[in-house]
Amino acid sequence: SRQEAINRVKGLFTGPPFDDAHMDAFRSYRELFEKQSERAVEATKILRSSPEFRSLHQQQRRVNMADLYASGSLGIHFVAFLPFLETQASDEQKRRWLAGARNLEYIGAYAQTELGHGSNVRALETTATFDPLTDEFVIHSPTLTSIKWWPTGMYASTHGIVFAQLYSKGTNYGYHGFMVQFRDDQGHLMPGVEVGEIGPKIDPRNTNIGYARFTHVRVPRFNLFARNQQLTREGEYIAAPPKLSKFKYIGMMTIRSGMVGGAYSMTANAVTTAVRYLCIRRQGFKDSTSENALASGEHAVLDYQLHQYRVFKALALAYAFHFSSRYANEFLARVRDGVMAGDDTAADGLPELHATLAGMKTFCTWTAHQQVEAMRKSCGGQGFLRASGVGDLAQAATEPVTAEGEHVILALQTARFLMKTVREMRRHLAPVGSVAYMREPPVRPEELGERGGALGPGALPASVRPLLLRLLGDRSRRFAEKLEAGFAAEVARGATFDQALNKVMVLAFRAAECHTIYTLARNNHDVVLQKTQEGPLRDALLRLYELISLQLVYENAGDFLGLLSDADAILARINRLLEQIRPDAVALTDGFGFTDWNLKSTLGRFDGNVYEAIYEEAKLSPLN
Amino acid sequence: SRQEAINRVKGLFTGPPFDDAHMDAFRSYRELFEKQSERAVEATKILRSSPEFRSLHQQQRRVNMADLYASGSLGIHFVAFLPFLETQASDEQKRRWLAGARNLEYIGAYAQTELGHGSNVRALETTATFDPLTDEFVIHSPTLTSIKWWPTGMYASTHGIVFAQLYSKGTNYGYHGFMVQFRDDQGHLMPGVEVGEIGPKIDPRNTNIGYARFTHVRVPRFNLFARNQQLTREGEYIAAPPKLSKFKYIGMMTIRSGMVGGAYSMTANAVTTAVRYLCIRRQGFKDSTSENALASGEHAVLDYQLHQYRVFKALALAYAFHFSSRYANEFLARVRDGVMAGDDTAADGLPELHATLAGMKTFCTWTAHQQVEAMRKSCGGQGFLRASGVGDLAQAATEPVTAEGEHVILALQTARFLMKTVREMRRHLAPVGSVAYMREPPVRPEELGERGGALGPGALPASVRPLLLRLLGDRSRRFAEKLEAGFAAEVARGATFDQALNKVMVLAFRAAECHTIYTLARNNHDVVLQKTQEGPLRDALLRLYELISLQLVYENAGDFLGLLSDADAILARINRLLEQIRPDAVALTDGFGFTDWNLKSTLGRFDGNVYEAIYEEAKLSPLN
Ligand SMILES: Cc1cc2nc3c(=O)[nH]c(=O)nc-3n(C[C@H](O)[C@H](O)[C@H](O)COP(=O)(O)OP(=O)(O)OC[C@H]3O[C@@H](n4cnc5c(N)ncnc54)[C@H](O)[C@@H]3O)c2cc1C
Ligand SMILES: Cc1cc2nc3c(=O)[nH]c(=O)nc-3n(C[C@H](O)[C@H](O)[C@H](O)COP(=O)(O)OP(=O)(O)OC[C@H]3O[C@@H](n4cnc5c(N)ncnc54)[C@H](O)[C@@H]3O)c2cc1C
Fold it and tell me: Which part of the chain is the Acyl-CoA oxidase C-terminal domain (chains A, B) (predicted)?
């Protein structure tokens, strides 16, 4: 497991400059940047000298830099720059660049976003104009808004993959990736390159995020990433085969798939801290109305129904993300490896993969942020101290919602795929793969029993659990159909594609959400049944699956108007489940495998000595 | 208006040390603390020397310290310490303390929360034991968990109102406020007082928050706040008259009422920035499917339906908070002034005031945080830079959800009041005041028209608007009744009060939410009709009221099972409203009156030169 992998190599990251991360919160912006750079340098040495670490980190991808130390932004080299190289470079380019990149002989940023454009990548303004006289591209930033803005690590990297509009002989062939060197081996900027830093972010640990402006910077023609498309010596553009045109997104898809795993680990981390703290934290008299309330003792916060509702929801979601993260990675690997091996049918899977990962990335990261913040809130005042761990986590969890595909845009991609599916179904093409469930017959109101009793406390788990899946699938199909119908009606009225989409955008976002939630629930259900034996573990995991599915139906009961006549029975079942889950809660969080070393949280300590920890941590303040 | 008041005195806060707040984000923790202290010292001088500022700040309460400069935590003296003095000190105590407090001759913290107890104030562990020999109280922290923890400003204040269990002759009379001096006039700690700092918080601007431990600290008996209860020289405890027992909460209620205003100003601030930026930000081709998409131009983000849905929701909520903030302040003033003037019937209003403010504080601050974060997200990557203003705002908006009454606890207070109301209704006592609406006849399904058409695009505003109010009121009554019935059933099964409440806690939270939302909607509707003339302004404000009410029904359609058969008509009406609101959006945010000086946001600039501003702000980074 990932935790075991971390434990095997974490010994390499002890001592200075790794051991004073708890003082980072006191540093000035510059001091923090310098400290992080020092750590990056040391980490580079470790990477070069430890084959075990290199293998776990790069071949097996079981540890991240951020798992091992308070890192700053060296990770981007491995999660964005390197995968792009691996999948988009020609064989010749790989021979030239890959070994050095893997060994950190140079460090690369992923320089796509500009001041003026993030989501609309096709409108990037940076230009790469082919100069046939010298066989070079001229990389240039023609406007203020064309400045590269946001790339992680770019302030202190030596290279970058720069995305720019490729011009040859006066024709624009759209945006492409180019290898551009920012600094020479003395660290000085290359001619025409201006690199800077963009200032403090809401996540205080982010320092090294950069901007770059290019003034007629020349790179060899060789530096156009050329696995799928090329420019000849004569300036002729040879396009990628149509089927492979989407393969240029495989790097971004890899990151998005990784972000589903990130949603898991952030949620799991926050919920571990919350469960541990709220078992220790006692607040509120057991008998508040008695004369001698003080003597009645106090409740552990985790014994309150409302906090169970919230905390176990996050717990269930963490497991759900985990199961879907595997699914996403496997789906991605199947398509990527097929395409890389030259299998043409594998390329057919690209649109579906893209739509699936777009939805997963959007709703897992969005929900993870919500849940981490909910866990932070349930810790009361203590969740405000950075020493709690959950505070910083809530900050960190916002980034993936926006970066690497802004969440609204990605949801719309999924929605477009769903509309296509519905159109095919209208033409009697049976949906397959990730949307095969849309073939299922619609749920009938009778299935829900009188007053929703089929989801009530009296119903058997064995019937409730598949019914929930059917309900979520049915909802998704209905939303997709409604979306497509609304869109088609706008088109029939004469709207263009974009106009029509804009008229149904609220619904489109929801349809993408419904589809993704169904997928998460199905993976959750199926993986538990496939990967566990009958017994208490399976029961505990199925209870979590049931809880989160019931909560999703209960909180969105309005999506089931006409099917559901009453939601009270669902709430009653939820409340009973909460009581059943309570005895397993600690074990289920322990199961994530976080140690004190991972959590770095005064509240999440395994030994429960939270008050001592809070006090001692506060004593570190240089003001004391 | 508040903005005018700010404009009148902001000139006093120019020049050093007030003019370098934009560099605060680069400072170390210690540097920031020192800078904030410097500003507090200067602000104190201004307060002492400017009668106009003192009047606007203290008599008229139209400006806050935080409105005028990047303040740190001097504000707590005025919002917590001083109101407590004003309402809980005896006349003699006022003569001794009030003038000095108003003039900032000393600075006081509000030292209630301890390491071990926040919400359960009755379980505070600090003791104040009367010593009849010396006519003194001995203030003592007997345990680690009894350390005062969290009080804002406490690290650098001279005094504090310390809450402690009052013991006399071996009897505990519950917790009371005591005036305790922390430091002498040289700034040295008084004997037995240990004060420290608790470390970095998620809001990086919070430095001066402290802890305090007392070792047998002696204060005169005089220092027990004695307006309502006293201890005699002989150690006899004279309790407050029962009716006034809740009056000791009036200080907290004042803060909570102020927090409704804070929810308004944070939401309004964030939505102003979002509207301005998203009118400038163009992203996404108008014709993305055309061969020459680039030439089609790009949409302003505010022209996308989904972003309108989110941004106008926040806009409508900001206005709703504003209208309810007045209501809360007036309600509070009526009761407080009545009680202070010795009017006994005014004291009867305390429980209702308490329940109303508890709900308002909870759901306004909770929703404000959600909305500010949503606005930050809609700015895409730029919302991550602290220079955007919205990033810090999202951080700041979390604090009021927890501080001065944790939101869950407060919601439960409101829920208890609702249960009492239902019990009285069952006994045929007509509900009055804030719950009078519960007398209204239930909504009948027919009122909603076929397929929810009565809320659809074809219905007349004049019928939709009151219907929405009826629906929200009906929902609140139903939830309150359901809650009371569930609670009563548990009691009938033998549960104690606390056990029964814990069995229905999820529902209780929602019932409090429904009641508060109804109240917000009603105030919104009524104030617009009462305070505006017929005309475009009234129309624009009523559209916002209608929008947010429709959104609340649409997003919670599951609360109307059995009444509503279809929510599609509601969404269609919402989408049409969004188009109608769009032309007013800029004017409606300008109406809040924020200037660039207030917003301190690269994105919210009135002149729209956002890219220049972002770039220039980044250049300030000491790394550049
Ligand atoms: C911490 C962090 C690290 C990053 N690291 C990198 C990096 O390493 N390399 C890199 O290249 N970039 C990086 N980015 C940039 C990131 O990829 C962009 O922020 C992201 O793609 C969104 O683009 P944007 O910021 O320009 O927002 P915009 O695209 O301008 O979005 C603003 C708003 O417009 C809306 N919007 C835009 N288009 C549409 C549409 N067609 N329909 C409806 N709504 C629309 C969005 O939903 C959003 O609400 C990073 C960003 C952050 C915050
Ligand atoms: C920035 C900031 C500034 C502050 N300033 C001050 C100040 O100036 N002076 C001061 O005295 N204090 C101050 N506080 C403390 C603040 O008032 C407390 O944090 C707040 O009252 C909550 O108490 P707690 O932190 O002990 O949380 P707890 O009460 O321990 O709450 C933890 C969790 O338990 C739950 N819980 C507790 N009791 C119950 C119950 N009966 N039923 C169900 N759930 C329950 C809560 O919902 C919460 O989820 C400040 C706090 C912050 C964050």
Answer: 469-624
- For B313-355, what is each residue's pLDDT tens digit? 999 999 999 999 999 999 999 999 998 898 888 888 999 999 9
Contact flag A619-B566 (C-beta cutoff 8 Å): no
Least Cα distance to A524 among A505, A506, A507, A546 occurs for A546
Contact by Cβ (8 Å): B227, B136 = no
Q: How far apart are CA A130 and CA B414, in angstroms?
A: 69
Residue type, B572: A
Distance separating alpha carbons of residues B465 and B9, to the nearest angstrom: 41
Average pLDDT over residues A48-77: 86
Q: Which residues of chain B have pLDDT under 70?
A: none
DSSP assignment of B503-545 equals HTHHHHHHHHHHHHHHHHHHHHHHHHHHHS-TTHHHHHHHHHH
Among protein residues, the one with the nearest Cα to ligand 2's atom 34 is A301
Contact B117 A377 (CB under 8 A): no
**B580 contacts: CB under 8 Å, gap ≥ 6:** B543
Helix (H) or strand (E) holding B219, with range, is strand B217-220
Residue B189 near chain A (CB below 8 Å):
no
Q: Please name the helix (run of DSSP H) or strand (run of DSSP E) that holds residue B618, with its range, or none.
A: helix B610-619
Q: Which of A114, A404, A481, A546 is catalytic?
A: A404
Would the pTM of this model clear 0.90, i.e. be above it? yes
> Which helix (H) or strand (E) segment is B180 a member of?
strand B171-181
Task: Give just the sign of the alpha carbon dihedral A151, A598, A378, B555.
Answer: positive
Which residues on B lie below 8 Å from A505 (Cβ)?
304-306
| Domains by residue range for chain B, with CATH | 2-102 (1.10.540), 107-239 (2.40.110.10), 251-287+296-432+462-589 (1.20.140.10)
Specify the pLDDT at position B66: 84
Question: Do B618 and A196 make contact, defined as CB atoms within 8 angstroms?
Answer: yes
| Rounded Cα distance, A184 and A168, in Å | 28
Q: Write down the pLDDT at residue A450.
A: 87
Two structure tokens written together for B3: 């903005």
